[in-house]
Amino acid sequence: MRKIKLNKDTEITVDVIKYVLELHKEEAKRINKLKDYYNNNNDIVYREYNNGNKPKNKISNPYASYITNTAVGYFLGKPVSYTNIENFEAINDLLVYNDEADNNTTLAKMASIAGYGIEIMYVDEDTNIRFASIDPSECAVIYDNTLQENIMFAIRYYDEKIINSEDTITHIEVYDKNNITYYIKEHDSIRFVDQVPHYFLDVPVSVYINNDERFGDFEKIKPLIDAYDKTQSDSANDFESFTHAYLVISGYLMDEESAKDIENQNIINLTY
């Protein structure tokens, strides 16, 4: 589900958090698959062969990253500039402090991969305003069901492996219009940890969409990438099988030196 909607009067409870996280599972799975393709970890890599000692090539073509990098390069090859803005010096200091150009590139790349990028604003330990792009596979943004589709709240979550244990806990951060509320999920239980105000007077989350349908730039041609990977892998297998073919000579007697020469040429001599 690329966009989660709830009734505008919905209260944020533990049950609602569980419901949203469950809904977001499929979306996270979709995004993680697209990130795999961007990293050239295509499905062909996991192809299984049941053909004994025959060649087993798994050629993964990096078309996904080529498409995304080209799109981002055209879009932000020249960084965004600002003119005729009040309090420009203060705003520029904020942008420089947050490395805005690099953050924009990260947002654009994620929007190209997943169909949208997410940015969160927060206040750091030195009381400076910060903003950062976050992985949409780890953040669910919830909209109300009105025509305006306003953002009601956002849930950021990520796993942490417990040292010297096989267990994993999930950190949950809920951003609403006034506060950031922290929870921890262990097994199927979610417990409250803390709540702090964020002072932004609105949900401090912005969503940047790639298109109205929220499709990634290479998402619709993923089947073509799979087909090309398979075709190239099969062609490489056929070629390798042909080049490794053996010529069998039966009933011909030769000395040891000649036998070694033909062995290096993929020729087998059978004598009776």
Helix content: 25-40%
C-alpha termini separation:
70 Å
> Could you give the count of β-strands?
11
What structural class do the secondary elements suggest? alpha+beta
Uncertain residue ranges: none
Tally the structural domains.
1
Percent range for β-strand residues: 25-35%
Query: Averaging pLDDT over every residue, what do you get?
Result: 90
- Note the main sheet: 6 strands, mixed
Per the principal axes of the C-alpha atoms, what is the gross shape? Answer: elongated
Strand order of the largest sheet: 1-4-5-6-7-8
Number of helices: 6
What's the alpha carbon Rg, rounded to whole Å? 28 Å
Order of SSEs: EHHHHEEEEEEEEHEHE
Walk me through the structure.
With 272 residues, the chain is an alpha+beta fold. The chain has one domain. 35% of the residues lie in helices and 26% in strands. It has six helices and eleven strands. The chain has a six-stranded mixed β-sheet with strand order 1-4-5-6-7-8, with helices on one face. Strands 3-2-9 form a three-stranded antiparallel β-sheet. A hairpin with a 5-residue loop joins strand 2 (116-123) and strand 3 (129-134). Helix 2 (63-76) packs across helix 4 (100-114). The radius of gyration is 28 Å and the shape is elongated. 20% of the residues are buried.
Summarize the topology.
Elements: E1 4-6, H1 14-38, H2 63-76, H3 88-97, H4 100-114, E2 116-123, E3 129-134, E4 139-144, E5 151-161, E6 168-175, E7 179-186, E8 189-197, E9 205-209, H5 222-243, E10 247-250, H6 256-263, E11 267-270
Parallel strand pairs: 1-4, 10-11
Antiparallel strand pairs: 2-3, 2-9, 4-5, 5-6, 6-7, 7-8
Helix pairs in contact: 2-4
